[in-house]
Amino acid sequence: MTRNEPKKVRTKAPSKKPRQAPEPAVANPEPVSMGNTEAQTSKNGKTTWEVGADGVNPCYVASIPAEILDMVIKRLITNPTPTRSRRGLKVDRTVHAGFKRPPVDKVAQRRLRSVCRTWAETIDATLREVHFDAALTPHALHFVWNEDRKEDVEVIAERIKRDCLDLERMPAGVPINLTLIRPRGTYPHINGGAAVMNWGAKRLINSFRNLKGDTASLTIYDNCDITWARDLLDDAGEVPEQRIHHQNLAEARAAMGNFDAVYKKMYVRQPTVTKAYRTRSQTDITKKEDGKVWKRLHTLRLMFNGVVSDWVFAKLSPFNFPALRCLELHLHQDEPLHLWVLPYSQITHLTLGSHTSNFILLSILKLARCSLESLSVRLLLQQCGQYERQEPCIDFPKLHVLRLYSATPQGNTEQVLDALKCPNLRTFDINTNALNAAARFINRSECTLRELYIDTGCRNSTALDALMRDHSTALEVFHLHGGIFDKFDWLDHLTAPRLRELDFICLGINEAAITTPSEPFEPDAEDFALRLLRWVKEWISVGGLRDTEHYQPQLEVRFCAAPRKFMAYLTLHPFYDARAFRNQLLAVSLPHAVEAMQDELLGEGMKVDLGWWLYEGDVSAYNAGRGSGKEKVEAKQ
């Protein structure tokens, strides 16, 4: 029809037949791939698309390649690991984030799963995370009175139904990552307030087609009695010869004697009988033993805050856990470490947190020395008894990562460090005041460090001088969290041509200098920050680093300062928790001299992130002094 041509007049009356809805499109089970552009754009070709969630309209996003689709879905529904808080790093790396936070956003997962069949199959096949938290589903099962049946009827929480449905949707035989948070709780109306298994957790585990065959990662966090968890992993158990609390060295030796007996017995296996000569009873026994095997379990994380109800050895036999490689065991102070007999000879990544003596801890570590690649130890016990180690150092030939966190006296940490030797160590993370023992351990191991993390309240810089002088050549990551050291000269030994990440948290702002700035005070966080920034400026210029292949123009420098009063609570790390002091700590502007140095480095292309935090009672005095120019900028430059 040409432009401005008059429209034709309708001469016939409209039909009085009822209008019919168009037939819905039928999805072809074999959708056209993205590469077949000719079939999609051809006029004669018939393009078919998968039907969307509404069952009528085609879903064009279903044609995204599986590799890209997998990446997109993981970005959208995977919760990021909380490695950084508002002010500082999350220091304790021994506690897995999965204990507290689900790795997958279930709401976003269900929304994306409802887009189309292709997306649902991709999610079911690749994202196999099941995270059960009993606190979010209290009781998870309750009873209501049914008038018709005249009895109580079980009512299952909707969240449990959805979790069970997610398990049923997963393809058979795929590995599952299962997390159970507080699956037991104390209910006042049951057995006088006893701790019983949450009905929702029972239903969840029972709905799992093959718990022992499909579980690849199992995480359990419980604050009640741990007997059920031990029975889940080892339904047999073994009672020790005597109950020993290892309060002294004699009891510790007796406890390890029981442990060694159970450990050796665990590795004794009955001779196998050929299939041709098996009796019916032997066949039944074989099937029963096969039913105990956790075939795919690669990672096991256990954290308990409750007390132990009995003294039974939990035996995780290598025959029942053939694929177990990563183990995290965090025990309560009333739960002895030696009651967990584990397949240490096959463990590559081990995390131990226990209130145990160094004798028992080192005796257990000796069993795992040949296979360990990563070791994290949390020393929590005030040392029981006296133990002077006379044995030679324990050599860990494959160990690359060592993390040591101590809440015990300095002598206990020194004893552990003096007993280890790791020639291939690459990452060393220590939270203690025993820096001299750490320096001796590094020199004894003759290793080449790539990453060094230090969290300490020590003020003596002698150990830092030794570490920087002998081990900074290959250093790539350096984190130092603590107070003000007596000297800053150790920075002169930090050559670090391969350095790419530098992170300092200094609990060293002198509050007294804010209110009375005219009086002389010892160096504080501002002096440390200026000294560090001058070192960074020299690092990019002196020595011809700009012209060498080791020059890193993208070096990330981070410095965060806080008041000294938080140094007294360094072991509790209140500064790293933004919620704990939300109304007490406030961010303020940088000192003028520090701000000037930061602007200069930013102008040269460096990544420098500085933060200054003060107690709320000192903010007004600090701002007044900064605004009136009371800072001695010229003297500090």
List the helices and strands and how they pair.
Layout: H1 37-41, E1 50-51, E2 58-59, H2 66-77, H3 106-113, H4 117-126, E3 129-133, E4 141-146, E5 151-156, H5 158-169, E6 176-181, E7 184-186, E8 195-197, H6 199-207, H7 211-214, E9 215-222, H8 227-233, H9 249-266, H10 280-290, E10 299-304, E11 314-315, E12 326-330, E13 340-341, E14 349-354, H11 358-367, E15 374-379, E16 394-395, E17 401-406, H12 410-417, E18 420-421, E19 427-431, H13 435-445, E20 451-455, H14 462-471, E21 477-482, E22 501-509, H15 511-515, H16 525-539, E23 556-563, E24 585-588, H17 592-603, E25 607-615, H18 616-627, H19 633-636
Tell me about this structure.
Residues 22-32 have a biased composition (Low complexity). With 637 residues, the chain is α/β, with parallel strands linked by helices. It has a domain at 31-82 and 99-127. Strands 3-6-9-10-12-14-15-17-19-20-21-22-23-25-24 form a 15-stranded mixed sheet. Strands 1-2 form a two-stranded antiparallel ribbon. Strand 4 and strand 5 (151-156) form a beta hairpin.
Report the C-alpha radius of gyration, rounded.
32 Å
Average residue-wise pLDDT: 76
Helix content: 25-40%
Q: Strand count, sense and closure of the main sheet?
A: 15 strands, mixed
State the oligomer: single chain
Distance between the termini: 82 Å
Q: Report the structural category.
A: alpha/beta
- Number of strand segments: 25
- Estimate the global geometry from the Cα principal axes: globular
Outline the low-pLDDT stretches.
Answer: 6-47, 188-193, 543-547
H/I helix tally:
19
| Sequence of strands across the biggest β-sheet | 3-6-9-10-12-14-15-17-19-20-21-22-23-25-24
Q: What is the percentage of strand-forming residues?
A: 15-25%
